[in-house]
Amino acid sequence: MSNQPYRTALVTGASSGIGAAIVGRLREAGIEVHAVARDKDRLARLADETGCIPHAMSVSDRDAMAALSSSIDIDILVNNAGQSRTGNIVNTTADDIDALVDVNLRAVLQLTHLVVPGMIRRDRGHVINISSIAGHYAFAGGNTIYHATKAGVHSLSQQLRCDLYGSHVRVTEISPARVETEVFGRLIGDMEEAKRRFFDEYESLLPVDIANSVAFAVLAPQRMNVSFMEVLPTMQVVGGLNFAKKSADPA
Fold first, then answer.
1. 53 membership: H or E segment, kind and range
2. pTM of the model
3. What is the pLDDT of residues 67-122, one digit of tens each?
4. Structural domain includes residue 211
5. Residue 164 lies in a domain
6. Do the Cβ atoms of 22 and 210 come closer than 8 Å?
């Protein structure tokens, strides 16, 4: 076991996928983990499997998150909870905009605001923000609101380092590309179809890959802050250029 000073972690979006994998990995490191998600039954199973402490609540419920964060000294905060939608700024809905902003950005800001002051007082802590390559790159087919919220998480992660200057509180942003999770099934309403379309013919990342990335940053020597980590499948690249052809001249 590492001689790292952290004892307690809070992980949001913990009931499945990346969040559940992070909970398991931190528990392997001997850290007490408070797992937050809305799905009570899945959290109960995760608690049985890992020994984490489950809290069935929404990250959008600031009062509930405030009560939880004030009841424990949180050494590691993993802002992982997130949602996505199909469509773009033209065909999205007002409700979808509010939902994505509420969970992907506002909840992250609120929980960070609740937890970081205690870290500063103790001069000990680590904030891990799980963002997305969607926060750094524009690409066709991406949801505009999702991209914007993840860009906000990226900006928060960088500015937070400035806010914490002179303390031993660390900040890490982990920005994954395609990870094989249920998110894709929820997007199109059919997990089997999502597997066929997005995963069967591709060697995507697995949730454990992101969990191991979190562990690398958390268990690194205290003199070392892993500020930003972009994690992609070996066979996936970002970038590219789309160029629409000129319309035909009117007759």
1. strand 53-56
2. 0.91
3. 999 999 999 999 999 988 888 899 999 999 999 999 999 999 999 999 999 999 99
4. yes
5. yes
6. yes
CATH number at residue 38: 3.40.50.720
Number of domains in the chain: 1
Concerning whether 146 is annotated as a catalytic residue, the answer is yes
Q: Which of 6, 137, 146, 165 is catalytic?
A: 146
Buried (b) or exposed (e) across 170-207, using 16+ Cβ within 10 A? bbbbbbbbbbbbebbeebeeeeeebeeebbeeeebbbb
Instruction: Pick the closest to residue 116 from 166, 75, 62 (CA basis).
Output: 75
Q: Which domain holds residue 130?
A: 8-231
- Rounded distance between C-alpha atoms, residue 40 and residue 36, angstroms: 9
Q: Is residue 238 part of a domain?
A: no
List, in order, residues 6 or more apart from 50 with CB less than 8 Å away.
23, 24, 27, 33
Rounded to whole angstroms, the Cα distance separating 104 from 90 reads 20
Q: How far apart are the first and last CA of the chain?
A: 75
Asked if residue 1 is part of any domain, the answer here is no
